[in-house]
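Input chain follows. Return C-alpha cells only.
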Amino acid sequence: MKAHTVMILDDEEWIVRGLAEMLDWEEQGFTVAGQFTDPELALQNIRALEPDLLLLDIHMPKLSGGVLMDMIREEGI
C-alpha cells in the first residue's frame, strides 16, 4: 500500500518540528513530504508534490494560510 504524503507549514519552527514528531506518521500511513516555515517555499513544494494532507498555520506573515489555501484550490490541487 502506498503511503499518503503530508506537508507541515507554520511560521514557528518549533511548531513544525512538534507536529512532525507528535505522531508516528508512518504507522498512520503517511510520509512527511516536507516541513516548512516559509509559506512561499511551501507553496512551490505543494505545487510540485501535491501532498495528500496539508497542516498549516492560518496566521503567518508574507502569505496567510487562508490565502495559500485559496491559491491551491484555484490551481486544482
